[in-house]
Structures are given as C-alpha cells and as structure tokens.
Amino acid sequence: MTLVVCCGSLLCFTACQGTGAQAFERGDYGTAFELLKPRATRGQVEAQMLIASMYFNGLGVERDASEAVEWYRRAAKQDFPAAQYALGVLYELGDGVSPDLAQAVEWYRKAAEQDHAGAQCVLGLMYHEGRGVAQDSVEARRWLGLAAEAEVARAQFTLARMYADGVGGDKDPKLALAWLRRAAEQGLAAAEYNLGLMYLQGAGVAQDDAEAAKWFARAAEQGLAVAQVRYGTMLELGRGVTRDLTAAFQWFSMAADAGNETARARRDALRAKLSDAQVKAAEEAAASSEYRRSKG
Questions:
Q1: Could you give the CA distance from residue 69 to residue 73 in angstroms, rounded to a whole number?
Q2: N or C: lower Cβ tally within 10 Å for the chain?
C-alpha cells in the first residue's frame, strides 16, 4: 500500500495557544503533555490534536499509535478537518488501527468537504486509482481540481496528466501544460522532470535545450534518478549547458548508485573518456553529494 502525502506534515498541529503549546513549540514535551492533557480531556480540540501528535510521534510519551488514533478521533468528531484528515491517513496506513481503505475514504471525504486541500488531493487520487472507492475519473478530476487550485503540487501534477490524456473529461493540452508548470514551479521533482522532457522534445512548447536542462537539473538536485540521467546526458553532449564530462560522470554515478541501469551503462561508457584524476574527483563528489536521495 502506498500512502501519498499531498501537503506537508500530516500528523502534527501547533495552532493551540497557551503555555502548553508554547512548551510544545520549544521542545519541552513533558511539560507540554502535562499542561495539554487536561485541556484535551475537557474537549479543547487544539489540545487534542497536540496530544494526538505527541502520542503518534513519541514526543514526551512512549509512542502509542492507538492512543493517537483515539485523540484524533475525539477531535474529528468535533468536525475538525485536520483531525479527520489524520484519521484518514492512519486508516490508510493501518497505524494504530486495522487498515481500512473504506474508513480512510470516509474521513478524507469529511475533511475534503471542509476544504482541507490535502484531503481533497488524496480523495481525488483514491477515485483516480479506485482505492477504497469505485474508480471514477470524473470525481477524481473534480477533487484534484479543488486541491490543485489550493496549490497542492501533487494534485496539480496528476491533474495535468489527466488533461493531457483526456481522463475524466476532454483533453486540454494547454491546461495540462499550465498545471504541470505550476507543479514544477512548486518544486515537485516529477513535474520538473516531465516539463524538462516537454522542452527537450518540443511537445506543446517550443523546443529549448536550455530550458530542458534547467528543469532536469532541478529534478536531479532533488535526487530523482531518471532526471540525473537526463541532466548527465545534457552535460555529456553539451546540450543547453556547457559540456562537462566530469560533471556528467558525477550525475551518472549518483543515479547508478540509486539502481538506475541506464545510468550505470552511461557512466561506464564515459569512464574511458576521463583521466583517473577526473574519475576520482567525480566519484568523490557523487559520494558526498546532498542530491543522493531518490530511487526513482
């Protein structure tokens, strides 16, 4: 089961005012728990959210996902959308409760109907994929559209693909490009990579190697292995960037280490064109790079 995180930290809430929340903010979780627990017991929803977060993350107390579920449920029953969303996440994960996609959908829907953008995104994805609910591309496009307007990048990216393919409604290449660009501009690596491909191929935009290289570089710097291969290739060929074989070898090495077979082949082929010193420098740079994250 794959959980898609659509907007930030799902299971922490810090809007509660007062000394308990202040203790939480400064990391004094033991004090925060002592001050917040009575308020939560009296029904203060913000305190309930913080207590739930502390149980879920093991802050000031031993981690206890089932207790987290109980406190999120109390807040959710007060129609607090962040709590409803959190319950949806926990039912989807099966963390603290038995996994139950139908229950997850129910809680996501309650939050989505209160304009919780993350819930709208996940609900749209579940309709799109037919997880926990009958597959319905029209409903998927509707919920994803609401989340996309709220600047949820994952929703924007998925909506772009739906407009490009005519899923859930008519094809609209212009809207597809617009939503893809908005997701890319928010830093979603998959969107950056796909926008780079469009510029490389001249698909829906004027062909532009420099723009392609720029977007490949942004995705590569997030650790997306397929983008690292593309950016390495642009560096190797000098397309849209100054030719730099050592840098190309470095990007191929990072992608190869993430398991990308194309990168491994490109790196090995490029090795013969470099001196031993250049190979050593590139390998050391790759090994210490902050961009070694994704297996994608």
A1: 6
A2: N
